[in-house]
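Re: the request from the purification team.
They wanted to know what the chain is likely to look like in 3D before they choose a buffer screen. I agreed to run a prediction and write the result into the notebook, where they can find it.
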Amino acid sequence: MMGFAPNVKSSVTTCTIENLYAAMDAEKTAHICAEIEDALERVKRGEMAREDFETYKRDKKKELMVLTPHATFSDGQRQNKTAVPSGLSMYDVDHIADPRGYFNTLVKDRCRELGIVMAHVTPSTEGLRLIFEVPAGMTLAEAQKWMSEQLGDSSYDGSVKDYARCSFIVPRAYLLYIDEEELCKQRTTQKAEITQKITQKEPSLLCKNVEASDRNLRIFDLCLAEAGLKLEEIDQMGVYNWHNTLVSILSVGICRLMTQDELKAVLSVKMPNYTKEQDCQRLISDFYKDYTKMNAPMSQRLRAIYAESVTGQKDKPITTEDVLGDASTSAEVRQTDGFEGARPLQASLGDGPLPCPWRSPV
């Protein structure tokens, strides 16, 4: 059976169909999801930056009630060691413009075949969530890989391996399919051990010709803090959702502040386990290709992160010397036309302001 909690920090109890529908029909649920949808419309109209929307969406979702489809917990706390598996698994199809169309075209007629017990649009309205029965003998990760193969989805979130992962409850209007009996059915399952063994990994993202600079490492730490995450927690296998963790960090706008190769070098230091996952490489590529506009205005918070990364101090204004270095902006700028003993440029013109080159002298 699944678990239910009033929010991500609350104790988990067993979910009943009555709990689920009451949460879906709650005015609070409808209000929060409507606010997220309105914010997305502002992004589409160019009134809100994508990174600001991602931050807003993340914060609003924390107010929603949640399910724990993978398990209930003997002590009521979301942790793998006390998980009682439900026999169900979650599968997300992220970043799609029309989740309902995707479901109607590729999933609707195969729900029973694929063991799907519930399907709904996610709070962002840009994703589809499927909850399905784990095929016999498979772990959570194997079940999710199996589902990706059934749907022909090569971009699935391949890092979701923990029983403690929660699912935000949405309004009933977002619901696309539900089998009440199968969803709340008591299943006999055996808990698969979550280990730190990594199989079939891609080579590390570490770029041989690019090293993680102190400044880029500092940018990562600032974006991590802005995403509300802690360094010691983000790369623990089987505990946190690596994919969504990196999405949160990327959504702050870190791609605007360093190149793709520089970010890969940083991640090889900060998230060495996840960098071995193909999902990590694909996610980075997608964000730089589809969601990063290098010439678009920065959000106020991203500008503050940039300034702090340059100056090393919070809220300190950036000077020209911070960006270009002392030598580049010294008052003793000299002419370099080969003349010996050339005087400083300002001195050669006197103490007044430099003349404007496109304006005739008065």
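For the purification team: Residues 27-44 form the longest helix (18 residues).
Please add any questions underneath this entry.
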